[in-house]
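Dear H.,

Thanks for agreeing to be a second pair of eyes. The structure we're designing against is below in C-alpha coordinate form, covering all 231 positions.
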Protein backbone atom coordinates (compact mmCIF):
# COMPACT_ATOMS: atom_id res chain seq x y z
CA UNK A 1 0.00 0.00 0.00
CA UNK A 2 1.42 3.38 -0.99
CA UNK A 3 0.38 6.39 0.97
CA UNK A 4 0.59 7.93 4.38
CA UNK A 5 2.40 5.85 6.94
CA UNK A 6 0.53 5.46 10.19
CA UNK A 7 2.92 5.16 13.11
CA UNK A 8 1.67 2.76 15.76
CA UNK A 9 4.73 2.77 17.99
CA UNK A 10 6.75 5.88 18.73
CA UNK A 11 9.62 3.77 20.08
CA UNK A 12 11.55 1.47 17.79
CA UNK A 13 11.57 -2.23 18.60
CA UNK A 14 15.23 -1.82 19.49
CA UNK A 15 14.31 0.49 22.38
CA UNK A 16 11.66 -1.89 23.64
CA UNK A 17 14.03 -4.46 25.10
CA UNK A 18 16.73 -4.89 22.48
CA UNK A 19 19.44 -2.45 23.60
CA UNK A 20 22.89 -3.55 22.58
CA UNK A 21 21.57 -5.51 19.59
CA UNK A 22 21.41 -3.99 16.14
CA UNK A 23 17.88 -3.66 14.84
CA UNK A 24 18.84 -5.47 11.64
CA UNK A 25 20.16 -8.47 13.53
CA UNK A 26 17.15 -8.47 15.81
CA UNK A 27 14.81 -8.42 12.81
CA UNK A 28 16.55 -11.43 11.33
CA UNK A 29 16.42 -13.30 14.60
CA UNK A 30 12.73 -12.54 15.12
CA UNK A 31 11.79 -13.54 11.58
CA UNK A 32 13.56 -16.90 12.00
CA UNK A 33 12.19 -17.42 15.52
CA UNK A 34 8.58 -16.67 14.62
CA UNK A 35 8.86 -18.69 11.42
CA UNK A 36 9.85 -21.71 13.50
CA UNK A 37 7.15 -20.97 16.07
CA UNK A 38 4.49 -20.49 13.41
CA UNK A 39 5.27 -23.76 11.66
CA UNK A 40 5.56 -25.89 14.80
CA UNK A 41 1.92 -27.13 14.77
CA UNK A 42 1.83 -27.98 11.06
CA UNK A 43 5.24 -29.68 11.35
CA UNK A 44 4.01 -31.80 14.26
CA UNK A 45 0.94 -32.75 12.22
CA UNK A 46 3.01 -33.61 9.15
CA UNK A 47 5.36 -35.77 11.23
CA UNK A 48 2.34 -37.62 12.63
CA UNK A 49 0.91 -38.24 9.15
CA UNK A 50 4.25 -39.45 7.81
CA UNK A 51 4.72 -41.63 10.89
CA UNK A 52 7.80 -40.00 12.36
CA UNK A 53 6.20 -39.02 15.70
CA UNK A 54 2.73 -39.37 17.22
CA UNK A 55 0.91 -36.04 17.21
CA UNK A 56 0.68 -35.97 21.00
CA UNK A 57 4.47 -36.33 21.26
CA UNK A 58 5.01 -33.73 18.55
CA UNK A 59 2.73 -31.31 20.38
CA UNK A 60 4.81 -31.68 23.54
CA UNK A 61 8.15 -31.47 21.73
CA UNK A 62 7.36 -28.73 19.22
CA UNK A 63 4.09 -26.90 19.79
CA UNK A 64 4.24 -26.34 23.54
CA UNK A 65 7.86 -25.05 23.62
CA UNK A 66 7.21 -22.91 20.52
CA UNK A 67 4.16 -21.34 22.14
CA UNK A 68 6.08 -20.58 25.33
CA UNK A 69 8.94 -19.10 23.29
CA UNK A 70 6.55 -16.94 21.26
CA UNK A 71 4.89 -15.55 24.38
CA UNK A 72 8.27 -14.94 26.04
CA UNK A 73 9.66 -13.09 23.01
CA UNK A 74 6.46 -11.06 22.73
CA UNK A 75 6.72 -9.97 26.36
CA UNK A 76 10.44 -9.19 26.06
CA UNK A 77 10.03 -7.29 22.80
CA UNK A 78 6.53 -5.78 22.81
CA UNK A 79 6.70 -4.37 19.28
CA UNK A 80 7.24 -7.82 17.85
CA UNK A 81 4.71 -9.28 20.25
CA UNK A 82 2.00 -6.96 18.96
CA UNK A 83 2.99 -7.75 15.39
CA UNK A 84 2.78 -11.48 16.13
CA UNK A 85 -0.72 -11.06 17.59
CA UNK A 86 -1.81 -9.22 14.46
CA UNK A 87 -0.38 -12.07 12.39
CA UNK A 88 -2.41 -14.55 14.43
CA UNK A 89 -5.55 -12.54 13.69
CA UNK A 90 -4.74 -12.34 9.98
CA UNK A 91 -4.13 -16.08 9.76
CA UNK A 92 -7.33 -16.84 11.67
CA UNK A 93 -9.42 -14.74 9.28
CA UNK A 94 -7.62 -16.19 6.25
CA UNK A 95 -8.37 -19.80 7.21
CA UNK A 96 -11.99 -18.83 7.87
CA UNK A 97 -12.23 -17.46 4.33
CA UNK A 98 -10.63 -20.67 3.07
CA UNK A 99 -13.35 -22.63 4.89
CA UNK A 100 -16.08 -20.50 3.33
CA UNK A 101 -15.09 -22.28 0.11
CA UNK A 102 -14.32 -25.65 1.72
CA UNK A 103 -17.35 -26.27 3.95
CA UNK A 104 -19.97 -26.25 1.13
CA UNK A 105 -17.88 -28.91 -0.65
CA UNK A 106 -17.86 -31.00 2.52
CA UNK A 107 -21.61 -30.61 3.00
CA UNK A 108 -22.31 -31.68 -0.59
CA UNK A 109 -19.95 -34.66 -0.30
CA UNK A 110 -17.42 -33.41 -2.82
CA UNK A 111 -14.63 -33.33 -0.22
CA UNK A 112 -14.32 -35.30 3.00
CA UNK A 113 -13.55 -33.65 6.34
CA UNK A 114 -10.57 -35.11 8.19
CA UNK A 115 -10.21 -32.20 10.64
CA UNK A 116 -12.19 -33.79 13.52
CA UNK A 117 -9.83 -36.79 13.30
CA UNK A 118 -7.00 -34.61 14.61
CA UNK A 119 -8.44 -35.31 18.06
CA UNK A 120 -7.84 -39.05 17.47
CA UNK A 121 -4.21 -38.51 16.54
CA UNK A 122 -3.55 -35.97 19.29
CA UNK A 123 -5.02 -37.93 22.20
CA UNK A 124 -4.68 -41.47 20.81
CA UNK A 125 -8.40 -42.10 20.91
CA UNK A 126 -10.93 -43.57 18.50
CA UNK A 127 -13.30 -40.61 18.83
CA UNK A 128 -13.18 -37.67 16.38
CA UNK A 129 -13.87 -34.27 17.92
CA UNK A 130 -14.87 -31.15 15.99
CA UNK A 131 -13.84 -28.69 18.71
CA UNK A 132 -10.33 -30.08 19.12
CA UNK A 133 -9.84 -30.60 15.40
CA UNK A 134 -10.93 -27.13 14.35
CA UNK A 135 -9.10 -25.48 17.24
CA UNK A 136 -5.93 -27.05 15.89
CA UNK A 137 -6.82 -26.00 12.33
CA UNK A 138 -7.68 -22.40 13.12
CA UNK A 139 -5.21 -21.62 15.87
CA UNK A 140 -2.41 -24.12 15.38
CA UNK A 141 -2.27 -24.19 11.60
CA UNK A 142 -3.99 -21.14 10.10
CA UNK A 143 -3.26 -18.51 12.77
CA UNK A 144 0.28 -19.66 13.60
CA UNK A 145 1.34 -19.76 9.94
CA UNK A 146 -0.26 -16.35 9.41
CA UNK A 147 1.88 -15.10 12.28
CA UNK A 148 5.01 -16.60 10.72
CA UNK A 149 4.40 -14.80 7.42
CA UNK A 150 3.39 -11.50 9.02
CA UNK A 151 6.44 -11.19 11.25
CA UNK A 152 8.82 -12.41 8.56
CA UNK A 153 7.48 -10.15 5.82
CA UNK A 154 7.04 -7.08 7.98
CA UNK A 155 10.50 -7.03 9.53
CA UNK A 156 12.58 -8.26 6.57
CA UNK A 157 11.05 -5.70 4.15
CA UNK A 158 11.38 -7.66 0.88
CA UNK A 159 10.96 -5.84 -2.43
CA UNK A 160 8.22 -8.24 -3.46
CA UNK A 161 4.72 -6.85 -2.86
CA UNK A 162 2.88 -8.37 0.09
CA UNK A 163 0.00 -9.73 -2.00
CA UNK A 164 2.29 -11.63 -4.38
CA UNK A 165 4.48 -12.81 -1.50
CA UNK A 166 1.48 -14.04 0.49
CA UNK A 167 0.03 -15.79 -2.55
CA UNK A 168 3.35 -17.56 -3.02
CA UNK A 169 3.30 -18.43 0.68
CA UNK A 170 -0.07 -20.12 0.26
CA UNK A 171 1.14 -22.07 -2.77
CA UNK A 172 4.28 -23.19 -0.90
CA UNK A 173 2.11 -24.55 1.94
CA UNK A 174 -0.03 -26.40 -0.60
CA UNK A 175 3.05 -27.95 -2.21
CA UNK A 176 4.19 -29.18 1.21
CA UNK A 177 0.73 -30.69 1.74
CA UNK A 178 0.91 -32.51 -1.60
CA UNK A 179 4.40 -33.82 -0.81
CA UNK A 180 3.21 -35.04 2.58
CA UNK A 181 0.34 -36.94 0.97
CA UNK A 182 2.71 -38.51 -1.56
CA UNK A 183 5.43 -39.40 0.95
CA UNK A 184 3.27 -40.71 3.80
CA UNK A 185 2.23 -44.31 3.40
CA UNK A 186 -1.16 -43.67 5.01
CA UNK A 187 -1.38 -39.98 4.17
CA UNK A 188 -4.23 -40.22 1.69
CA UNK A 189 -6.17 -42.49 4.03
CA UNK A 190 -5.73 -40.03 6.89
CA UNK A 191 -6.42 -36.83 4.96
CA UNK A 192 -7.90 -37.25 1.48
CA UNK A 193 -7.35 -39.15 -1.75
CA UNK A 194 -5.48 -37.30 -4.45
CA UNK A 195 -7.85 -36.77 -7.35
CA UNK A 196 -8.22 -34.00 -9.88
CA UNK A 197 -11.04 -32.57 -7.75
CA UNK A 198 -9.24 -32.67 -4.38
CA UNK A 199 -5.98 -31.37 -5.83
CA UNK A 200 -7.82 -28.49 -7.54
CA UNK A 201 -9.97 -27.45 -4.59
CA UNK A 202 -7.11 -27.78 -2.10
CA UNK A 203 -5.00 -25.50 -4.32
CA UNK A 204 -7.88 -23.05 -4.57
CA UNK A 205 -8.23 -23.06 -0.78
CA UNK A 206 -4.56 -22.30 -0.28
CA UNK A 207 -4.71 -19.54 -2.88
CA UNK A 208 -7.60 -18.02 -0.92
CA UNK A 209 -5.64 -18.38 2.31
CA UNK A 210 -2.52 -16.75 0.91
CA UNK A 211 -4.32 -13.96 -0.95
CA UNK A 212 -6.40 -13.19 2.15
CA UNK A 213 -3.23 -12.71 4.18
CA UNK A 214 -1.81 -10.43 1.50
CA UNK A 215 -4.97 -8.32 1.36
CA UNK A 216 -5.36 -8.07 5.14
CA UNK A 217 -1.74 -7.37 5.98
CA UNK A 218 -1.56 -3.69 4.94
CA UNK A 219 -4.74 -2.85 6.87
CA UNK A 220 -3.98 -4.70 10.09
CA UNK A 221 -0.32 -3.67 10.30
CA UNK A 222 0.16 -0.05 9.35
CA UNK A 223 3.83 0.60 10.13
CA UNK A 224 7.09 -1.26 9.94
CA UNK A 225 10.00 -1.36 12.28
CA UNK A 226 11.80 1.16 10.11
CA UNK A 227 8.74 3.14 9.18
CA UNK A 228 8.63 2.25 5.48
CA UNK A 229 5.27 1.70 3.83
CA UNK A 230 4.11 -1.68 2.65
CA UNK A 231 3.57 -2.28 -1.05
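And this is the sequence the design step returned. I haven't edited it by hand at all.
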Amino acid sequence: MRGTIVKECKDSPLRQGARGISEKRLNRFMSIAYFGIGFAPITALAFAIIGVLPLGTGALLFVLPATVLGISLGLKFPWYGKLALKGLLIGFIAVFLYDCMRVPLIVTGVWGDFIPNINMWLFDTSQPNWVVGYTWRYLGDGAFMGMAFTVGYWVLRPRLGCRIAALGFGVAIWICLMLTLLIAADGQEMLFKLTLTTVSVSLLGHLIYGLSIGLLLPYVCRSRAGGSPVR
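Two observations from my side: The chain has one domain: 23-220. The two ends are 4 Å apart (CA to CA).

Warmly,
E.
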